[in-house]
Structure formats: C-alpha cells, structure tokens
UniProtKB/TrEMBL annotation:
CDD domains: AAA. This is DUF2075 domain-containing protein. It comes from the Bacteria. Residues 233-362 form the AAA+ ATPase domain.
Amino acid sequence: MRVTTGRGPSPSEVRSWQRSLPALARDLADAGLGKVELLVEYKLPLTSKRADVVLAGVHPRTGEDSYVVVELKQWSRAEPSDRGEHLVIVDGMPGRDLLNPAEQVRRYCEYMSDFLSVLKDRPRSVHGAAYLHNAMDLDVDGLYDQVRDERSRLFTKQRRGDFLDYLRERLADKPGAEAADRLLSSPVAPSKQLMAYAADEIREREQFTLLDEQQVAYELVMRAVDKARRADFKQVVIVTGGPGSGKSVIALSLLGELYRQGRTALHATGSQSFTQTMRRYPGRGSTRIKNLFMYFNSFVDAEQNGIDVLICDEAHRIRETSTSRFTPAAKRTGRSQLDELMAAARVPVFLLDEHQVVRPGELGTVHAIEQYAQSRGYAVNRVSLDEQFRCGGSRKYERWVLHLLGLEGSGPAPWTGDEDFEVRLAHSPQELEAALLAKPGTARMTAGFCWPWSDPRPDDSLVNDVVIGDWSRPWNVKKDRAVGDAPPSMLWATEPSGFGQVGCVYTAQGFEYDWSGVIIGPDLSVRDGRLVTVREANRDPAFKNRKAVPDADFDHLARNVYKVLLTRGMRGTVIYAVDPVLRDFLARHILT
C-alpha cells in the first residue's frame, strides 16, 4: 500500500483489515473457493478511491474471467437517512451521513466497466456485494430497499449462507491469478456504453452556441480527431483566450459531441475547485458523467494514445511534474506532466490564459507547450479567442487591467467608462461590501493573500482573518467540507452562502459572478507612477521561499493574481486598495 498510495495504512484501516479480511477468508474457504485471488484495497483507475476487495477468478458456467467487488463493513447497526436517497446513518458515527454500501459497490462496478478495457465487451463479468458481517437483518432494516441489481447485493451475517451461494454462482474453485493479472494490467479508456450515456447527458442537456473563434477552435479539434485516427497521427491543439472568452464552453461542447460520435474523451484541470464544480453541474445527478472530469495528475500511468481526445482546461495550471512530496520514491519517474498529458491522447487540447499563471511551478504557457510538442515531432495548431464574454464583453476593461498591472502596454491608462461594464472605487471595505449587497445578481469578495488563514474554531465557525481597521471577514473555507453555513472551498464561487467570506485566487480562478469586489492588499503599492509589488506584505506560503521563487518571479505571479481577481465579474467590479498611496493612484485613474 505504501508503494501504490505513498502512505502506510492508518490504525483504523489496520483494525478494519484485522476484523474483516479473516471473516471473508473463512467464507471463501467454506464456499470451496480457496483458489480465488483476493485484490485487497484495489485502486480504481484514474482516481484515489479504493475498493475493499476484488475477488478475481473464473465463472463456473462460462469459464471466462469473473470479478466480485466486495465492500466489507463492520457496522452493527444502520438505518436510512432522510437527507438523501442513498444515504444512511451508522451507529457510532454521529453527525455523518454515509453512502449505502450497496449503492457504493454498485458505483464501483459501474466505474470499472466504464474505464477498464479488459471489461469493454463483458460488463456483466463484474459483480458487487456489500457484506455487513457483524449485523443482523433487523439491525440494518431499510438498507435492502436500495438494492437495485446484481451489482448492489447486500448481505448480513444472518444471510451468510446466501452470501456463500452468491459467490459460488459467480466464481469457480479454480486459480484466479491470470484473471487478476488481466484486471491489474488493463489499459484505461472510457467504454462505448459510457460514451453513449455521456452524449445524452452532456450534449442533449446543455445546448451551447459557439461564436466566431470558439467555433473555429471546436471545428479544428474535430478535424484533428478525424485526421489523427485515419493517419495514426498525433496533433496538439492550443486554444488561448482571456477570462470569459468561452474556453470551458468549447471544452464541454467538444466533450458532448465527441461522445455522441463514439469517440473517447476526458476533461482534466489542475484545480480542485474547478473540477469539482464541473462534476457538480455538467455531471449533476450522474456519477458516470462526473467521472469524465479528471485532474492533470490522473494520467501518470495512462496508456499511450489510450483515448482520442484529452481536453486540458485551465492548462495554465499544468505543473512541472505530477509527483508531490507524498509520492513514494518508487513512483518518482522524473516524467514531466506535459509528457503524461500529451501521451495519453491522440489529440491533446490545451485551453489556457497565460496571464493566469499564479503559482510557482505552474508552466502552462503557449511557448512551453509548443516547444515540448515540437521536440516530440507533434504537429501544433493554435487558435486565439478574440471575443470577450466575461467583464460584460468589455475588452476595454480587460486591456485596462493588463496595462494597470504592467502585464501589457506602456503603463497605466485612465478608465473612462464602458456602458457594458461598471468599475467603481470604494474608499473602505465597508463601502465595497455594501455596494455588492445593493447589486442584483451574484456577487463575491476576493483579496490578495495578505492576511493569515486560520483553521476553523472547534465550534465549527470561521476566524475573521481579513482585518482592515474595524472591518473583518473570514477567508473562504480551506478544505472540501462545509464549515457551518459556509460552503466547501470548491463551491465558494457557486453557492449563495459563499458571500460573506473573502475568496482567494485559488478558489476564484476559473469562475465568474455578476459583481466582483476586489480588495487589493498591501502587497501592491505605487512608485514613480507605476504599480510595484511588496513581497514582505504577502502571506501566501507558495511565495515564502526566495530561493525557490526569486523576486522577479514573485513580481510577475503577484500581478497575475490580481489580474485573475479583477476579471471575475461579468457586470462590474468594485475595487478597494488597502495602501492609501495606491488608493489615491486608482482614484486618479478611474474617471467615472
């Protein structure tokens, strides 16, 4: 486990194995299935999820490979929850709703059938059962109501005999090592069944109208797919565009159309917030659709050209390598993340905005992608999205921001107004917040990372870390679980309860809302008529090490951070600067 996951088992996992695995081993022996292969803590492809046990062997009637996924539960008592169709409440785990293990194992089976090539034409060779070996029927009354099919069977210790019969019907007492090897070595690729399902769910549910260069990019990718398949040829497509230019709309349109045509495709990003939101909305109500949305580091072991298209959205967040400090030495291949992404598909598509590189180690630039592709002999096509759809369609505002921050042009220019987009300077954070509350539609407050970021208090409340005079508010939630009424970090930009917390660039990037309130922290000031960065005022841990992040890199990244924050609004932006010199400077440059 340490080799495959980078960590050893926790004490609770060890206790679980000690209590559950011997029980399952006895059942296999009593069922006369001693030759069946057990794959313990089987890792599902392209995800960190693990099934407790997969039994691999030979089907007693067909003689073909047969697999039974088993979820082992030590629960002694559980009952359905009224908070969700497939949720249960378990004794000894107060305050937590868990997924019914019958539904859990059904989804594991479905996922394996969707993504493992060895199961491509034999989805019925995978079966699933939840085994509550400490519970009697009355202890889990109501859980059986959710058993839907042969992949979601549920057994208690009272039904041990039925469980043994279930295993004998699906596994013969023959060696299962070869079946296990075929499963473990199977190439990973979406199945035809999943492609048909995705086409209906994405293409039919969401109707996108692509305009001008968006349609150009779309058709360029579709043509590249045809050419790559006919000529066994790899082609890289790079789509660049500013905030709101429609990059993600292109991505979803491609995903739906490719699946409708029977092509294989996946969507990937380097942002937890962005990926989780894509899973929540385009994939709403469907676990299978959610599984199409991956992370850049999901392709470490992907098969060469295993899929037709890999859509790398927010590609400016590509990192040098997929490994981290938690990656075990045996897994450190030294392979670049760009190489992994390009190798995984015949047509890798990169959608990016170079001005959104905001962290050290992010190298998703047009130059880096083109240079690497050309070094491997891959053809490269590039499309620039000229239209602007965020910021009220105001290219004027986007250019003003770029010039203000010194990212383009010869220096700051005055903002003289745009009938499609409102820019307003606030003289206090109270005024900024009040202005947002008075606006119709959605609104969020963001800030530069210039204040500490505390963990929640024991009473499940957030600490008001962003303190400016007598005004204070908390940062958005750090992690992927709600704290009180505050949503988890990846839903801060999309859930109404996100207002009232101050978002950082890592939760705001990739999202949009009607009205954006931006607090420019003391890490930006003015010298000789131009903005300068003040490293000492920045609290982002990513910038702490001056050796790893030289001052010149910090300067560029900090400006990109504010570029991202200032371009989230679709109808307008309200700006407050903590530094009084910068505040006066902005007042002279915002003339409306």
